[in-house]
Protein 1
Amino acid sequence: MIQDAEEKMIWSSLPIPGVIVDPGDKITEINSAAEGFLNASSKTIIGEPVWDRIMIDAPLEEAFERARSSNSPLFVNDVDVGTGSRAPLHCNLQIAPLQGRPGYMIFLISPRELAGRMTQSHSVKSAAKSAIGMAEMLAHEIKNPLAGITGAAQLLSMNLSAEDMELTDLIVAESRRIVKLLEQVEQFGNLSEPHRVPVNVHDVLDRARRSALLGFGAHMKIVEDYDPSLPLAMGDPDQLLQVVLNLIKNASEAADKKGGNIRLHTFYEHSFRLRRADGTGQSLPLQIEIIDDGPGLPEDIKGDIFDPFVSGRENGTGLGLALVSKIISDHDGWISVESVPGRTVFKISLPMAPDPTRRNKKESS
């Protein structure tokens, strides 16, 4: 279909998924971004019916045929587009006849999620910095008087009856509970910068899986679904382990007491780049998904789940996912969530470690 070298270069450079279909509505060409969006190679996609591969939550076929017969473009905004391999994304569609090829149509798919990807890293860091300042101040100011209250209650209990001691024991127990919460707040504020080295994410995931099955996730079935050819990531192994453990723990706690399923999925998405507000970009091809079949996130907090002090659990601090967000942001990565009842997917995108063989070749040349 696209044979000219310059046309091929432009087609493969498009930052959004592009698909060309023939008069029989079969796919004849997809670009690199579409391979990532559809999570499949062009060899497996070409020749497939377009409506089998691109599932749009709107009655589009008639409007599509009208656009083809009238040789006019079609614009569709704010629709859910699925691919069969992942949850649907909210997208805008641009469809137009391919000039010089009667009956052929070109699809351009613009996931609205991408806009959030571009700004989320910056907003997460800003929110985290504000929360850290307040958290550190509150933790310091509250822990000191709590220590005095606990000590006073313990002294009083030495000369009290058994009935009255229940009250002082309550004071001590509640004071210690508050101190424990404050220590979580301090952990959020005192997290050091990541010490990034080349790391095999499968090693991290395996450590997290084994640790979870021996403790909080003993009632869960945790399945590995790895891409064995995944290159090394650039990250701090201990901090990434903390992230994965937190996500598995959340899924385990949200599941039914009888248990549930968690799938650890990795794959390579070469087309994904995160563009920052200053115009610089970062390639984040390494993808980790933690998928569970629990009840899903509450609708009222789904959009703010990574903000500090937002929690969907009773007595939750709302710092766990904020800490996860901060760690991934400090890694120059990106994290997102898609959640419906029965399927919640936390997706982490990380940079790839530099290839030492490539650097050695440059130095020797």
Protein 2
Amino acid sequence: MLFNILTIFPEFFDSFLSCGLMAKAVEAGVVTVARVNPRDFAQDKHHTVDDRPYGGGPGMVMGLPTLVAALRGLKRPGKLLMLSPAGRPLTQRLAGELAGQEAVTLLCGRYEGIDARLFDLFDIEPVSVGDFVLSGGESAACCLMEAVARLVPGFMGKDASAEEESFASGLLEYPHYTRPEVFEGLAVPAELLSGHHAAIAAWRRKRSLETTLARRPDLFDATPLSNDDIQHLRGVARVRPGRNMHIGLVHGPVMLKDGKVGTVSLTNLDVHDIARVSRTYGLGGFEVVTPLRDQLALAARIVDHWREGPGLAANPDRAEALSLVRLHEGLDAALAAVAADHGRPAALVATSARGPASLSFAAARALLASRPALVVLGTGHGLADEVLARADGILPPLRPFSDYNHLSVRAAAGILTDRLLGDAR
């Protein structure tokens, strides 16, 4: 496989290409690396490759003449990639795709960037090795080259090595052990000493599942799991971030259809469906808020029917979900109940389809990891401004760029909860 590297610092790769498996692969001809310096294509005596940006601003921009000449001079350019934090994430799947190419060309940017017209002249795909900024693309290119080269036949000492590594199966890898069998009181797991290949494979699969659940649960979204895998994961003891989250359904004060502030009636379906969402995601509770006493009495009859009445025997699952429901005359009472559950004040997180937001979903996830929070949704046409004004943060609309943003509160509760807790499983 051929890697063409366009870089103004070709010496950057000297060490990388002269040690370890990469050096052996180059020596054996499994991998060929051609370093191309755009400065060699400059027409001036200073070998200039950059210039000041149009529109002003700090720094310099890599220009087109030298880069275009360098690219057009390649005999086997293959697939063109540019290392950029704005690119497609480098994953094991992408590495596998690139390993099937005969040649790959890597553009290593420097300065403030590259003249954007280069993408109009060539079919170049940006690739990112992470959400951070480097001084140039060289170190990122090393990451990409090694990830891809490891999958080229003949690179690894054993083909099985690549097949069992992290991400090869879509999961993180299981832990490894070697001699001595016991070190400072720490023993190698007995299963690995049994010599029973099926038992060892089962142990490794379980540890791989557990490691992925603890560190990268988002990987399960793209990884098929067997029934045995799912049953094992259900039994894994872990801290569930949902315990800190309480959903609050506010019926007043909310915005009415005519733009005024008022109170709307409680809906049986809202109580049932949001209670089921709360139980499914392991929330701390479901707080129903209405200032109308007749509505509180109605809600109490609904809940009692399922928790203690005939509904308990007819549908125990529904009764389990409705056991999370608590009824409050006002938002202060709901906040006090949540604070009492956790022994500390609870944050008030509001939702609004109108915007603007003051709390990102990422920040809300971090908040839930550290303290209890009451996440309130408004019935009617959304929470009144007085509720939004007192909130510690307002989450973004669920569909901020859609021309239709009128989800039912039940649907919004499910989507919102999954967006905050979905990856936590």
